[in-house]
Amino acid sequence: MLLTSKIRDQVFVHLPLGSFAEYQSKIADHQLNVEIMITAEDIDSQPLDSIEKVGRFLSEHQLYCTIHGPFLDLAPGSSDRLIRQVTQERYRQLLALVSPLTPRVIVFHAAFDPLFYGDSAQTWLKQSLETWLPIAEAVEKMRGGGRIALENVLEREPQIIHELLLKVDSPSVGVCLDIGHAHIFSSAPVSDWIRSLGSKIFEFHLHDNHGQWDEHLALGEGNIDIAGLLKEAQEAKICAALTIEAVNEEQAMLSLQRLGSYLRP
Questions:
Q1: Beta strands per DSSP E along the chain
Q2: Which 8-state DSSP code applies to residue 243?
Q3: According to the model, what pLDDT value does residue 6 have?
């Protein structure tokens, strides 16, 4: 077992739905919780019984999951009403598909792009609310009480997501703080994101880089002080899922080993 039982329930490994069957035995052998990436293509092609099969496997092995929803070409704050409608429909389809899994968190991208909306953030917020308010209501009705976490990507500071959370005003809606993205794209230190968002952080995405591009390196292979950031989160009593995002199995296993050492008392 790579992680102690004390921290195992908090840690997840990112895995595309299409790769789940290939890695089932290793998931069971190492007792790994998983974050399942589900694309729009998966929504269209995966029958409900295949998702229920995944749920039975996780239940039989006493494992948990989070979900990463589709994001390519979706724009919850788009200025185009039809794009927002399509985005919301995809989100609703995902919620219906994954309901049997009772995921701990469902991750969506907040998708604020400062290049296009930097001078019209309030307009973007208003448009985003038209997407997130009904989705928040749908999540609250999910079996077991669902939660969604809005992930940062290109956002340069935590304030825009913090303001969106205040306007949505739902205990079921929080943040997935992607440490790697914040290290590259944010003008504010990652520690500022932790202090600003606090208990609204439902999940961390953990991967490393050198601050230039989204390398998705194993923990400790870049220049992010991940151990220090996790310590800061612990001191702030932030109880969040910790999800390893790696480009391959070797990197994932290395990250798990290092994460275990970072979290030791």
A1: 11-16, 33-37, 65-68, 106-109, 148-151, 173-178, 201-206, 241-244
A2: E
A3: 65
What confidence tens digit (pLDDT) does each residue in 24-66 have?
Answer: 999 999 999 999 999 999 999 988 889 999 999 999 999 999 9
Give the list of residues 6+ apart from residue 83 with CB closer than 8 angstroms, or none.
74, 75
Q: Which residues pair with 206 in a beta bridge?
A: 244
- Structural domains in the chain plus CATH codes: 5-253 (3.20.20.150)
Whether the per-residue pLDDT at 17 is higher than 70: the answer is: yes
Q: Tokens 């968002």: give the residue.
A: 197
Tokens for 37, please give them. 């990436």
**Would you state the structure tokens that stand for residue 95, as one six-digit string?**
């919620």
Given a contact cutoff of 8 angstroms between Cβ atoms, the answer to whether 153 and 177 are in contact is no
Tell me the sheet residues that pair with 13. 34, 244
> For the segment 139-175, what is each residue's pLDDT rounded down to a tens digit?
998 877 789 999 999 999 999 999 999 999 999 999 9
Alpha carbons 121 and 112: distance in angstroms, whole number: 8
pLDDT at site 145: 78
Q: Which residues contact 125 (CB under 8 A, 6 or more apart)?
A: 77, 160, 163, 164, 167
Residue among 3, 42, 44 at smallest CA distance from 19:
42
25 CB-contact burial (10 Å; exposed 0-12 / middle 13-18 / buried 19+): exposed
pTM of structure = 0.96
Q: At 195, which amino acid appears?
A: R
Instruction: Give the chain's count of helices (H) and strands (E).
Output: 12, 8
